[in-house]
Model the fold of this input.
Amino acid sequence: MAEAPALSVQGLTTEFRIGGQWHAAIRGIDFDLGKNETLALVGESGCGKSITALSIMGLIPKAAGRIAAGKILFEGQDLAQLDEEHLREIRGDRIAMIFQEPMTSLNPVLTIGFQVAEALRYHRGMSQAEARTHALELLEQVKIPSARQRLDDYPHQFSGGMRQRVMIAMALACKPQILLADEPTTALDVTIQAQVLLLLAELKQLYGMSMIFISHNLGVVATIADRVAVMYAGEIVETAAVGDLFDRPTHPYTEALLSSIPRVDRTSDTLMAIPGQVPAINRMPGGCRYAPRCALRQPVCERPPALAPVSGSAPTHLARCWVRAGGDR
Done:
């Protein structure tokens, strides 16, 4: 019998209200996250990667957003149906998230030590002294230099890379089963980026976590992911094991993303740009959402394709394309 996934997302649709009408930012998202697996969600800004993560965490603002359909199954519970009180018991404890920009995620008027210890006091009922001791251990684990002296420093006294390490320490404080990392290396230079990626990989193995890694950088994804789901305009358009995706990119959007990456073995005049931009959620095309930007579009693309197996590839390699994968003819 196959092992149950750590997380199962089924038909997830999240909507936002614009001009008095609801529009889907993500639609029909399906994936399973295996235990001790790293799944990467990739795509341009505006494709719905962060909205997927925020939906899982129950952080969609209720004033203008809602989960309209689907299930988020974790340990036999549907997170989409839980109230805020029960979500708070899970969020930051068994499921944690590293947010995209640490300077806006850390409280500027609270010390680093206080903020790392906060989850331990709330979820583990530790005393202030005990939580502080554990906070120090966490800062040392994420390789903050002179961690004991820096416990009482404030976020503005840390560099960008060190603030990101603090965010990782906060997320791992309660040893979560699932970690969501939302572009954790975007604002860092390549040297610090490599250090943070190595740190995440080491801590994932140490804690035996599953991880959803969100990025627009396929080069980063190649170094850290086991499996990749490419998102475009709120839908998953291709999913495959990381090796299969790079060896045989099938959806035209995936192919275009890979062609737009600078490479040392190519001249600058071979670097390709994807024409156009991701459509706004209130102006989505009726058929294939990538068709207006696609060089391979055909009349059939006016109908929405389904995720379909890619012929001649692994059974887990799926693409949402009439031309390349047959859609659902």
